[in-house]
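dumping this here before i forget
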Amino acid sequence: MHEVLGATRQSSAVFIAAPTGIGKTMAALYPAVKALANRLADRVFYLTNMTSARLVAARAMSDLHRSGLLMKSLVLYAKEKLCLKPELYCDTNRCPYALFYYDHLPDALGRLFLYEQIGETEILDCARACQVCPFELALDMAVYCDIIICDYNYAFDPRVRLERFFAQEQQKHLLLIDEAHNLPERSRSMYSAELDLETLIKARQAVQGRSGPLESDFDRVLDWLNRLKEAISTNQPGFFGLEPQVQPTAVMQAENFRAMRDLPQELLARCTASMRTAIFFWKPTWILTGGLFCSRVFSRCFSSAVSQSSFMMMLTSPAPAWTIKKTAW
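structure:
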């Protein structure tokens, strides 16, 4: 506990290792509460790798609340877990919990302020009663909470991290990272992405006859991938010829493997065009196929947050399925 407080005062890091079941969660949370009480931090984030670890932290907070703690704590869950209308796939123009969200938000926040500890049950009950999106309600309520228990993503993933907290440099937050040995692997996945040929083909089939421009954009991406596949099958460098800026000597190659450090600008341009067209021709009838593919693959694979990652091509032979990866090393 003294180490946690000392690290907080010095704005430094401390690594703590102890056997399972010895009480590490409480040993980290209790001094964090003291740090908040003495204004050494503006807010505490207890970051976990799994839902089960968040439940352990929530139980520790329950013990503190029963002992008289008056600080507000909140457990954040994924949007998919809280969604009350999953069949609408977060279509804000149709979801009844999103249409008048800001009109109902003050009443919803007022109800949640009655609780010292806010979890999934409190969020869902309040969201149903006030007709608001439970996930957005949890995010808005987090601003008024002292201790937030959530997944690593909300602090470290450049695509989903909580900008309302981490974009403001003047705020001082205390991060308690549970099972920190999992963080390097999770971080690599946050800054990496995959573009799967089979998924792309399914997305192309999903929009068949529904959007000519989007079909053409998908065909251009498929053409790039198929030409690369053909080059690799004939033992050619692969990227050379597809990407004007890439020289054959800049391509690392082995059997069924190609990699380069330069970004594939031509592929990026084709995928960006597909993404823009997909957004313009967004249709609920294919949102679970083509739309889901675009939002989860294109936007992740080619966001600016991963633009400095290395680019890797992997071809599995003789199976037709192959994956193109952008990997943070």
